[in-house]
Design brief:
The complex is a heterodimer. Chain A is built from eleven helices and ten strands. Chain A is α/β, with parallel strands linked by helices. Chain A has a single domain, classed as P-loop containing nucleotide triphosphate hydrolases (Rossmann fold, 3-Layer(aba) Sandwich), CATH 3.40.50.300. In chain A, helix 8 links the parallel strand 7 and strand 8. In chain A, helix 4 crosses helix 5, helix 4 packs parallel to helix 7 and helix 5 crosses helix 7. By secondary structure, chain B is mainly α. The longest helix of chain B is centred in the N-terminal third of the chain and has 41 residues. Chain B is globular. The chains are: A alpha/beta, B mainly alpha. The interface between A and B is medium-sized, with 27 and 23 residues. The structure holds adenosine-5'-triphosphate and magnesium ion. Magnesium ion binds next to helix 2 of chain A.
Amino acid sequence: MKPPVATLIHSGGPPAPEAKIVISAKRLSVWYGSSLALREVTLDIPCNRITSLIGPSGCGKSTLLRCFNRMNDLIPGARMEGTLEFDGEDLTSPGVDAVALRRRIGMVFQKPNPFPKSIYQNVAWGARINGYKGEMDELVERSLRRAALWDEVKSKLNKSGLDLSGGQQQRLCIARTLAVEPEVILMDEPCSALDPISTARVEDLMEDLKKDYTIVIVTHNMQQARRTSDMTACLMLDDAAKDGHRTGIVVEFSTTARMFTNPQDPRTEAYITGRIG
Amino acid sequence: MSTPATSSMYEPKRLGRRLAGPIFGALCLFATLIGVVVLAVLLGSVFALVTRYATSENWSSWLANVGGLSSYLGNLLSRLQSSDPESAGFRAGVFGSLWLLGMVTLFSIPVGVGAAVYLEEYAPAGRLKQLIQINIANLAGVPSIVYGILGLAFFVRAFGWEKVALGPTLWAGSLTLSLLILPTIVIATREALRTVPNSLRQAAVALGATRWQVIRDHVLPSSIPGILTGTILALSRAIGETAPLLMVEAAGSILRVPRGPGDRYTALPVEIYSYAKQPEAEFQTVAAGGILLLLALLLTMNSIAIVIRNRYGRGPRN
Ligand SMILES: Nc1ncnc2c1ncn2[C@@H]1O[C@H](COP(=O)(O)OP(=O)(O)OP(=O)(O)O)[C@@H](O)[C@H]1O
Ligand SMILES: [Mg+2]
């Protein structure tokens, strides 16, 4: 009844052909202990594009995102199977240097989490621990400018990062990520704690960052996925197994334009039109 | 129709509900007062004991009495032990206790904080960790005299192996007290580490930090107020301990200030104990004066803990 996963993946056609593939997942499954959270995800993240992950709560979007920078390592019992290729390396293999990987694949969290340090230190710390040799003041300014925060904080760089508003804090977190010059930026619902104006600023920022970075964003906001992203992957919970446990799967992966105008999978269509999820 | 039916379903016990809160509040206030009153009575009786002999009978000259009390305590500080209450003092004990304080600090903080950091930040969840945790919690409840016996057998006598036995020296005393407060320090430090939000660790890890960098730059700085507060309170406990020191032979009859960690020593509470045992009533005054000195030392340490908490207490907000 259900078509096999492989055909679903390509139902949207190949992702924008001119783009290089940065991260490539093939039949990637993720377990938390003995429960399967994600089953056989096959997905290519194109370079200098924004890829959004959408789907109902609990379907494994954050789980998938955390695979990309091995943040799941922090969760006891979490493990991956299949292949996840980044820069010629299989991230599922235990020999991967996760610490070095995380500098190259940065992450912005759902809840703004600046360090309880000065704004300057918030940006400088990541660069310093990664052995940044250049001029630090210049890097801090450049990162804050890039995150569209410089003008608001340039006069109070020594104030605590916690004294900023939520939207400013989130841009500070983005600046902090940019300061270590990653290749990919993962964003897990970065705007869910922000008002529409702050959200718009972050979205503008993403559009600007796209020139130099590859962005993967998880969002519950269909409009946001539609506005910002080039590619969209829709995840769903599969039909309940015998024991009632439900596993996340990718039901459709295609260009955003196609996903929102002509979804191939009935579940995707139901989700994006608001009938389920 | 439906409105009266629904509202009749709710019958708050108005009187009982209104009374329960104030009654509970009064009980809590009473509990607080017990502590405060007992402390006041204790302090008052100690003061009374000291002032009975140390100051003039004329209470109208209150200032003179305060002056008399402080000069009396000053004398106690400058005199060694004596069988004559007129010239008896706590000089050896005060210096012994300060030596102990310094050495216990050096031994117990690195080990205690290190163990707590290992358990909270490194140890994989599992049987072993659970076993260690239960053990530490139990050790915190072991009576101090038991640590005294351990210290005597292990540090002072080394189970009869004389070459390595430390003898009744500051080494043995401070190591015994360090063991005694180690569980408390581990537990306090773990509590402090647990208040550091995981979002902070994740933020640092996601930037490509190693575990050590995260601990050094974020976890420890954020938890240092809690660590220091707990540690200073544990150290205060060590300084007030008498029983284990008696066990490890911090003899009451030491007549000089220790010159180094290998020296024999006595401690303030031990001297208080040996004066209080004397039959002459005058010695009770000396003992009470010693108690005031000890209280002054403890209050100083606790105020340092409070200052630290207030100064660095503005930890992460979320
Ligand atoms: N640390 C964890 N330990 C065990 N199971 C987990 C853990 N984190 C997530 N899970 C499980 O994995 C599944 C997917 O969770 P995940 O957080 O990835 O969902 P999500 O799509 O991000 O949901 P949301 O939209 O609500 O953020 C859920 O069933 C969840 O219970
Ligand atoms: Mg999530």
